[in-house]
């Protein structure tokens, strides 16, 4: 398998999951700052022009964070990256959808790329503030979902890899994590798989 990634992008969470699984894979960097996602050869491989993308051994491509994470968990049950009950799976999907579609795409994207949400540069501070408000509210809700547990669903799962990349962006956005999420981030950073992923991406 090949993972197309950008350092410290949301693809970091998928990178962590691949490290957790422990099977061979290749990392292929997409230079987002240089616009490589819009150029050949990546644009033909993934016309969505974003990361992550997982190229499987049969040369078929899987895109979108939740779909890739779900595929990896389902095809590697020995890694125990998903709850075993239907209720657990539903709660996992519920968390993933909120973290990726709302906190990441509606919140952080406004903070990091305000020009994508307004044609007027004078409006960008307001766009950033809206994103900040969304992320702050998201952190609060996710902190409540975590509660006193070590991981979001009790046992470690793909949901924690998504939460990790969101937490890891906190300092970049000058946001303070709630106490529970700060503890979760430290537990994640202590995991060998996370340490390997951070080192490989030059983030350690």
Describe the structure.
The chain is globular. The chain has 8 helices and 4 strands, in the order βαβαββαααααα. It has 2 domains: 2-79, Glutaredoxin; 86-191, Glutathione S-transferase Yfyf (Class Pi), Chain A, domain 2, CATH 1.20.1050. The longest helix has 27 residues, at 86-112. Helices cover 53% and strands 7% of the residues. Strands 2-1-3-4 form a 4-stranded mixed sheet, covered by helices on one side. With 204 residues, the protein is an alpha+beta fold.
Number of helices, counting only DSSP H or I runs of 4 residues or more: 8
Named CATH architecture of the largest domain: Up-down Bundle
Largest sheet: 4 strands, mixed
Q: Return the structural class.
A: alpha+beta
| Spatial gap, N to C terminus | 24 Å
Which term fits the overall shape? globular
**Low-pLDDT windows of residues:** none
Q: Name the assembly state.
A: single chain
As a percent range, the share of strand residues is 5-15%
Rg, rounded, reads 17 Å
Helix fraction, binned, reads: 40-55%
- Mean pLDDT across the residues is 98
Number of domains: 2
CATH overall fold name of the largest domain? Glutathione S-transferase Yfyf (Class Pi), Chain A, domain 2
What order do the SSEs take from the amino end to the carboxyl end, as H and E?
Answer: EHEHEEHHHHHH
Q: In the CATH hierarchy, what is the class of the largest domain?
A: Mainly Alpha
Q: Care to count the β-strands?
A: 4
Going across the biggest sheet, name each strand in turn.
Answer: 2-1-3-4
């Amino acid at each position: 398998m090949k993972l197309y990634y950008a350092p410290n992008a949301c693809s970091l969470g998928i990178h962590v999951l691949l490290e957790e699984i422990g099977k061979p894979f290749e990392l292929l960097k997409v230079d987002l700052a240089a616009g490589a996602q819009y150029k050949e050869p990546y644009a033909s491989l993934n016309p969505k022009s974003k990361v992550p993308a997982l190229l499987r051994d049969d040369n078929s491509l899987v895109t979108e964070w939740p779909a890739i994470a779900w595929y990896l968990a389902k095809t590697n049950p020995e890694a125990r990256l998903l709850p075993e009950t239907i209720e657990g799976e539903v709660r996992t999907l519920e968390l993933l959808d909120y973290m990726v579609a709302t906190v990441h795409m509606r919140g952080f994207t406004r903070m990091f790329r305000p020009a994508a949400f307004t044609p007027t540069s004078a409006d960008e501070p307001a766009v950033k503030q809206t994103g900040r408000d969304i992320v702050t509210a998201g952190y609060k809700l996710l902190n409540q979902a975590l509660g006193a547990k070590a991981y979001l669903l009790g046992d470690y799962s793909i949901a924690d890899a998504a939460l990790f990349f969101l937490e890891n962006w906190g300092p970049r956005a000058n946001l303070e994590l709630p106490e529970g999420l700060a503890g979760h981030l430290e537990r994640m950073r202590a995991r060998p798989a996370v340490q390997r992923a951070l080192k490989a991406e030059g983030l350690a």
